[in-house]
Write a structure and sequence with these properties.
Two copies of one chain form a homodimer. Chain A is built from twelve helices and 17 strands. Chain A is globular and about 60 Å long. The relative contact order of chain A is 0.17. In chain A, the strands form five sheets. Chain A has a seven-stranded mixed sheet with strand order 2-10-9-8-7-3-6, with helices on both faces. Chain A has a four-stranded antiparallel sheet with strand order 13-14-17-16. Chain A has two domains: 137 residues, Aspartate Aminotransferase, domain 1, CATH 3.90.1150.10; 252 residues, Type I PLP-dependent aspartate aminotransferase-like (Major domain) (Aspartate Aminotransferase, domain 2), CATH 3.40.640.10. The longest helix of chain A is centred in the C-terminal third of the chain and has 27 residues. The first copy, chain A, is of the alpha/beta class and 404 residues long. In chain A, helix 4 packs parallel to helix 9, helix 5 crosses helix 6 and helix 10 packs parallel to helix 12. The first copy, chain A, is 37% helix and 15% strand.
Amino acid sequence: MFKVNDNYQKLPGSYLFSTIAKKVNTYSTANPDKSIIRLGIGDVTQPIAPSIIAAMHNAVDEMGNAATFRGYAPDLGYEFLRSAIAKNDYAARCCDISADEIFVSDGAKSDSGNIQEIFSVDNKIAVCDPVYPVYVDSNVMAGRTGTYDPKTEMWSDVIYMPCTMENNFVPEFPKETPDIIYLCLPNNPTGTTITKSQLQEWVDYANKNGAVIIYDAAYEAYISEDDVAHSIYECEGAKTCAIELRSFSKNAGFTGVRLGFTVVPKELKCGDVSLHAMWARRHGTKFNGAPYIVQRAGEAVYSDAGKAELKQQVAYYMNNAKTIKEGLKDAGYTVFGGVNAPYIWLKTPDQMTSWEFFDYLLENANVVGTPGSGFGPSGEGYFRLTAFGSYENTVAALERIKKL
Amino acid sequence: MFKVNDNYQKLPGSYLFSTIAKKVNTYSTANPDKSIIRLGIGDVTQPIAPSIIAAMHNAVDEMGNAATFRGYAPDLGYEFLRSAIAKNDYAARCCDISADEIFVSDGAKSDSGNIQEIFSVDNKIAVCDPVYPVYVDSNVMAGRTGTYDPKTEMWSDVIYMPCTMENNFVPEFPKETPDIIYLCLPNNPTGTTITKSQLQEWVDYANKNGAVIIYDAAYEAYISEDDVAHSIYECEGAKTCAIELRSFSKNAGFTGVRLGFTVVPKELKCGDVSLHAMWARRHGTKFNGAPYIVQRAGEAVYSDAGKAELKQQVAYYMNNAKTIKEGLKDAGYTVFGGVNAPYIWLKTPDQMTSWEFFDYLLENANVVGTPGSGFGPSGEGYFRLTAFGSYENTVAALERIKKL
C-alpha cells in the first residue's frame, strides 16, 4: 500500500494568501455592494511596459514561423537573457558573476521552494521572523523542521531570528549556528532593509561558520538609498557562501508573465561538491526552461527603452508607498518600510492582533491587507500594506483608513 | 557546516540528452562541413498553429493594457483553460473528471519530476524498462531508489518491468508489489502501447494492491487505433488509483511554450488523506502558475480552428513516422512503434550496442538518434528515432541510412 509524505500533514492550516482570499470572498459575497480595495497580496497592477509588449509580440511571431520557431530552451536559459542579466545586474554593480552561473526559471517562488532540495535534510535552517512563508513551508514538506507547536507557532528545528521594532528589523546572529540562512532584503514583509556593511557581516558570519545564505533579492529594484546592496555579491566573499534569487515580478510586473533566476556561483562548494553542478542537475531533470516568449520579454527589461519605462513604473509604486506611509502617519499609526521596498509595515493600533486588524479593516474600510502574524509569530501585532495597487485605489484606501 | 543532499551524488553521469548534445557538438566541431540531421531528442519542429499564435498576440495585448492586465494566476490555473480541458479531454471521452481536479503547470517534465514529492520516501517505485529518465532520476534525488549497480545499471530499490520485443513491449505485473507504478502510454521511448483492456488490468492490479499509478499520457494525440485509451480514466476504477500527467508539447508543439497539466482525482486517497489536497498544497507553495499568455494559448488548442490545425500537425508527424518505419524496414531493420506514437524503436543491427550504433549513425550518416540503453538496461540493443523532424529532413535521413 502506497504511503504519502507525512511531512505535508504537519503543515498547519492553508497557505496564508489562500486564507485571505477565502475571507475576502466570504465578506464580498455577504456584502455585494461594498467596493473592496486590495492592498494585501503583493501582486502588481500596472500593465507590462510597451517595449516588453513589443518584444513578446515579436517572439510570438517567431514561434509561428518555421524558420524562427524555438522548441526546448537550453537547460540554463537562453544565452541572450543570461548575458543581459550578467551585464546589467552584476557587471554594472562590479559583481563578478558570469552568465553561466545564472539559471533562468519560471519565477522566484519556484526557486525559493525548490532550492532546499539540494541540501541535506539534516541541515538546520534559520529564518527571519516574520518571513515569506514559502521558505519555511518548503522545508516542512522536506522534513527539515521538526515538530510544530501551535502555541508558539514555531517549529522545533527552525532557528528564528526576530525582526521587530525593538531591533529596528535587523536580524541578529542566532545563538545556535544554522546551516542554511534565508535572508530576503529588502525585506518582505516588513519593507525594511539593512545596510551593505551589515550585510557584509552576514557574509563573514556564513563563511566563518560554514553556512550558506539563500539571498532573496526580489525587491532590489525598489532600493533608493546608497548604502544598501542590490546584490549580495557586492559583499566580499559572498561567492563562497551565497545563492541569490531574483524575480522579474516586482521590477517589471511579471507576476502573470512568470520569470526569475537564481545565481549559484561556481566557487560555492561543500567539500568537493559543487552546488552549481547540483542545481544544474536539478534544472536539467525537473524543469524544461521558461517559455521562449517570456525569456525575450526578460531581455527587453534590459533594453534602454525597457529600463526607462520600468524606472517610471517603480517610481509609480514608490509614490504609492509614500502616500500610504505618510497617510498612515497622519492618521496616527506607527509605520515602517516603504523607503527601499514597496511594502508598508504598521503596528496594529489598540493592541489588536494582526487578524483582528485584518477583519476590522476589511469590515470598516473595505481594505484588504495582510496580517503580520501570517508571516511568523514575531509578525503578531503588525500588518502589511502593499504599494502595488493603482494610485487612485491607494489614495482612496488611505482616505477610508483616515476616517476610521 | 551545511551539507548537501547526498542522493544527488548517486546519480551516474549526466542527463541522457546532455550527453548526446555534447557528443554531437564534438563531432560537428571536428567536422564543420557535415550537415547533421537530428532525430534524437523529442523536440518538435513545426511552428505553433495560426489560431494559437493569434490567441497569444491577443493575450500579450491584454497584458499591455491596465484594464485587461493579469497578475498572479489562480493556484490551479485559469478556469477557462481547466474547463476546456475537462470538456475536451475528459467529458468528450466519457471520463468523469471535473475542472477542479485539473492542475495547470509549466509542463509535464516538471510534473513528472515533482509528483513523487507527495509520497513517502519509503515507497517503492516500479518503472518500465526502458523508461523516460526523469521518473527514476527524480526518485533518486529523493532517496527512494537504494544503491546503483554500475554493472547492471539498476537501482537496488527500483522494480524494473522489462519491455522488449520478447513480451511485445507490454509490461508484466512484477513479482514484488510496488507502491507507485509509472506508466507512459503510448510509450516513450518504444513508441508502442497497450490496449484499453490491458490498461484496465493495470488499474485493477493497482486498486487490488493499494498501489498508485502515475500515468503519463503525453503522447495520447498520436493514438490511431480504436482499442487504445486516451486517458487512464477511461478505465473503471482509475479515479481511486491513478494520477494522469498531460503535456501540450507534442500535440500542439509547445516544447518552447511550456504548458502541461496533472489530474489528481478527489477520490484518490491514502486512508483519510486526499492526494488532491496535497498536490494543491504543493502547487500553492512551490509554484506560481503558468503564464497567462501561455494559458490562453492552451485554451486556443481546444478551439475549433486550433483542433483542425493540430490534427494536420499530428498527421504531418505521423507521416514522418510512417516514412521512417517503412524506410527502415526496406533497409532490413527490425522496427517497432510509430503507429500510436511519434517514436520508432529499432533493433540495432549486427549486435551493436546502442551507443555503438549512435556513433555509427552519427559518423556515417550524420543522423542523430537516441541510444536505447540511455533509457534503461532493457533498452540496450535498441535505438530511438523521432518523427518530430521536418518531412524533408526525415526523408533525407532515411536516404542516408538506406545507403549505409
